[in-house]
Design goal:
With 343 residues, the chain is of the alpha/beta class. It contains 13 helices and eleven strands.
Length: 343
Amino acid sequence: MKNFKSFASDNNSGVHPEILKAIIEANTGHSIAYGDDYYTEAAIKKFKALLGNNIDVYFVFNGTGANVTALSTITNSYNSIICAETAHINVDECGAPEKITGCKIIPVHTNNGKITVDLIKQHVKGFGFEHHSQPKVISITQSTELGTVYTPEEIKEITSFAHKNNMFVHVDGARICNAAASLNLNLKDITTDVDIDVLSFGGTKNGMMYGEAVIFFNKNIANNYKYVRKQSTQLTSKMRYISAQFEALLSNNIWLKNAENSNKMAKLLFEKIKDIPKIQITQKVETNGIFAIIPEKYISIIQKKYFFYIWDEDKSEIRWMTSYDTTEQDIDNFSSFLHNVIV
C-alpha cells in the first residue's frame, strides 16, 4: 500500500522536509570520510549548545547499534545490566546487547515501564563474589516503552544510587525528545543536569531518515568508544549524511516541534476515544503512544485499514503510535473509524 497513514510506529513516518533538504545539500562535492567533515563538526556543536560542552558525541546507524556500543564501552562481559522488563534492550534487540557485550541483562518488573531505586536495589548485590555477575549499569528508557516519562527527580535518584555503588546509568533515548516536550523541559534538564553517564539519542523516530547519536557525559569512560564503534560495524564512512540530519534536527527547534506534534496528536486521539466503552486505556498518555485493551474480534478489522501492533496478545492489548507528521485530520479519520467499528 502506497502513501498510507498508520498508527503502528513513529518509525513508519517519512523524513522531515528540512532534514531531507539537509541531506540533499550535503550531497555536493567531497567530504573527508569517517566524521572528519564540516557537517559532523557542525552537528556536534549543536549538541554541545543544547547539552553543554563537556560531552563526547558519536554517530551510528541505528538504535540497537547505539545501545550496544554504548553498553559495550562501559562494561566487561562479567557485568550485569539492570533495566525494565519492557526495555528495548531486553525485548526488541534480538539478544544483541547480551551477545555483543557478553553481559547478563536483569529485567525488572514494572507496571508503567519505569524502574525505581526500590525495584533496582534487590538486584544490586554480589559485589566481589566471583560466582555472580557484577552489577555495573542501570539502563532506563526515556520516554519508556509504555509511553511514560521519568521526571528529573526520578532520574537523579537513580543516578545518585548508581554512582554510590560504582555503577553507570545509560539512557535509551530513542524518544527522549518526546520526553522533554512532555515535561516542558530542556534536554539538558533530563540528561546533563541529572548526572547520567551515557545517552543513546534518537533521531529516526523524530523525523530523520536514519541515524542515532551516542553521547557520553562522563568523558572518562568514552576513551575506547571509537574502537568499539568500529568493531561493532557502526562506523559509517559517509558520516556527513547522518551528521547533516542531526544538524538540521537540532536547528530552529525542529526536534522539539516534531516531538510536540506527535505528543499532541496522541493526546488528541486519547480525548476522542477515551469514552468508547469497549476501549480500556492502560497507561498514562504522556508522549506519543496509546496503550489500550480492546476486544480481540475488532483488532484484525481495524488493522486492515490502519496498521498497528498488538502489544500483549494475552490481554488483547494494542499500541497506537503517532508521529511528527500525524495531522488532526488523521486523528479525526482514525477516531471516527474506531467509533464506527468498536460497537
